[in-house]
């Protein structure tokens, strides 16, 4: 498994598993648990979740999946912005720990920026880290301006990662945020690496250029889209999969090696940004 190192020195898998929409339907619970466990068997021990997902339901699914094998897992969870004050972060973290059935969260993120001052959230994160309830902390959906502001605050240099929307279609961070993050030694976690479910994902996975590259490699368009992300330094991809075939397909993307010819074709079909863009969010 390819790994990425945070500036704290902690190492995480470059390919993980997302849990958005998990924990919402009891009929799918066992399948979701099984999918996460299979991913762990295949080396995808990084599991990304949030208190928002299923209002805690996804964290409960993760807790069941990692039972008896906590040491194989790297758990990422996220706190709501409205819970991001000093007292709220602590209470939210305790609830997440209980749902996850663990004594620590490996990486705890502010889900997106809200009304609570960043300084207060960073103070709360720092206190939780000192107590060992979280091992590292970071942010999500922060653009470069947000990152520069946060970095200048006390505790800001301890921000370990930033999770943002990044894929072949949404490449805006390549203009400024991604180069800056690499310079800082701060991994970027790419959520929705295959776009969200529905028309956007369908448009990506059926794009003629992506299909053509996939045919050259004898793999799926989704694997090419993941391989494009995974080849980049400092980038972690967290696709969601709830069935065994999809989990195995995602893992196999690590074995795809894109050529310069492939990359040129993909750049023509999905051009990199030519100017600064507003941060894409979902």
Explain what the structure shows.
The protein is α/β, with parallel strands linked by helices and 282 residues long. Helices cover 40% and strands 16% of the residues. The protein has helices at residues 29-41, 57-65, 86-100, 118-131, 144-151, 177-184, 199-205, 208-217, 221-230, 244-252, 260-269; strands spanning 3-5, 11-13, 17-18, 46-48, 74-79, 105-110, 134-140, 159-165, 188-191, 235-237. Strand 1 (3-5) and strand 2 (11-13) form a beta hairpin. Helix 1 (29-41) packs across helix 2, helix 1 runs parallel beside helix 10 and helix 8 (208-217) crosses helix 9 (221-230). The relative contact order is 0.14. Strands 3-4-5-6-7-8-9-10 form an 8-stranded parallel sheet. The chain has a two-stranded antiparallel ribbon with strand order 1-2.
